[in-house]
Amino acid sequence: MTHRPTPAPDRLQNGSILSGAGRSPDGLPSALAVLDMLPGLVAYFDRDLTYRFANATYAAWRGIGPDQIIGRHCRDIVGEANFPTVLPRLTEALSGTRVTYEYSLFDGGNARRVQGSYVPDIDADGIVRGVVVLVTDISVRRDLEARIAENEIMFNDAFEHAPVGMVVTGADGRMERVNAAFAAMLGLSIDHVAGLDFRTITHPDDQDADVTLFDEIVAGERDTYTLEKRYLHPSGEPVHASLAVSAVRAPDGTLIRMIAHVQDITERRRADRALQEINARMTLAMEAVRGGFWHIDVESRRFETSPSFSRFVRGPGGSGPIDLDTYGEYIAPANRDAASVQTLLDGEIDNASVEYELATVNGPRWMRCDRKLLRASDGSPLRIVGVTIDISEDRERQLRAMAAAETDPLTGLLNRRGLDQRLAQTDDGVSVGIVAIDLDRFKAINDRFGHSVGDTVLVEVARRLRGVVRAGDHLARLGGDEFAVLLPDADDVRLAVVADRIERALGERLVSNGITLPVGGSVGASLMQGSRTTPAAQSFAAAWARADAALYAAKRSRHTHPIRAA
């Protein structure tokens, strides 16, 4: 059966779809003008699926003029990608059934989600003469629905699996929803906690503060509050928690719900109490010693000392805080580089211990300072903590012990160990003069006059040696009647001058208890050339061998005379 196309109104027949819409005699837009104003696509197909009308939005979506749409077949305009989708629905509408469905409308490589509504145009005889089509873009709505659904899933997942307690509370204080972490914190099940009034599980001593803030949110006086409080636990031990509550309100400000984040801080509070006890004990301990604590905030470089340390440095009447630069001025200039905390501030090391001389209200004191760097979770330097203790007495005892270990007790000169220590302290590349000394006829003096006279001779020799060298030179008794002299930063000329002075000093007459003792000495000298590649000990051994050889050569050339009493 063939249906004749239904004659369209003049506007449809002449195809002037986008022409001036025109107005009715009362000034209102015409019906077709209203269709042009709609944001959706409006079209009319006859039974042959030929366009008889398309509104302005339809033409704009298709990107073609209205005169290129009217009279053309649906397939030509909607395209091959869309026609297989719309044809079955158009056919259904042409059968007299109203059709509404959602589909993806393709425009080249792009697609948008739309809703199509197809309404059959049925005349008074019940004959379907065509189809009115309305297509609306629902992409934004679908995206919004998807985002809402996604946000709902994300909220539920975050709520249920959060490592801290999560609670949704109504304006009446009843907990409508709680997560597993919150229930576990209270030692109860979710079913047991959900539905309870928060007041019934709050420690009685904390109820007033919590309820006051809660009521302020209900009254619209605030939207958030934070509070540390205690919850009741079946064990009888309270649960310490950090509570953060936020209001969820409607656009008009009406309270919908409150969401609370609850973090269990029971262990932290226990640790805080333990730390306070430790600090109190340490403070008492530091009051019993000379010194104190200090710390530096790395970011601000703020330096703070304990009261005991401030009193130790400045005395009870000291005014004002001690900043880092000011404290540095109390350190002896020779020790300031070694006492620097810069490597700790830069995060290059984590621990350091140093000893330095510090000016205090009681005069210069030697201090031992132990420092430790505390780091943030990302490893960056956060804080330096230190303890500084007066070790002056210990240092004096240590220095005396070191001096005794390095000193010949009879003459007060260095012993062999002390000489080795001074040699080790010699800078690389510095030439050192070495003088080897051996007394003549010393054994005969001991044998004839006894060891007490021999000791007198050794003490006198030490005195004479001190008189011919500089303060920075090093004198040593190596044992028996052997002596040595180190002349740092010497050359051949100075070495020869000092060796000659020593030989002449030893040759002077020595009288002890009315007895003239013919003490003389043989001297050998050698210059140890400074080297940055050869170890000092190796260079010294070679130079000492040369000096020793020179000494014995001089001794062989010397005539030995019998000892006579004066």
UniProtKB/TrEMBL annotation:
- The GGDEF domain is annotated at 430-566
- Protein species of origin: Sphingomonas aurantiaca
**Which ranges form a coiled coil?**
none
* Name of the protein in its database record: PAS domain S-box-containing protein/diguanylate cyclase (GGDEF)-like protein
Classification via Pfam families: GGDEF, PAS_4
Q: Which InterPro entries match?
A: Biofilm_reg_signaling, GGDEF_dom, Nucleotide_cyclase, PAC, PAS, PAS-assoc_C, PAS-like_dom_sf, PAS_4
Q: What NCBIfam families does the entry give? A: GGDEF, sensory_box
**Segments forming domain PAS:** 151-221
What CDD domains does UniProt report for this protein, alphabetically?
A: GGDEF, PAS
Q: Where is this region: Disordered?
A: 1-20
> Domain PAC spans what residues?
225-277
Identify the domain of life. Answer: Bacteria
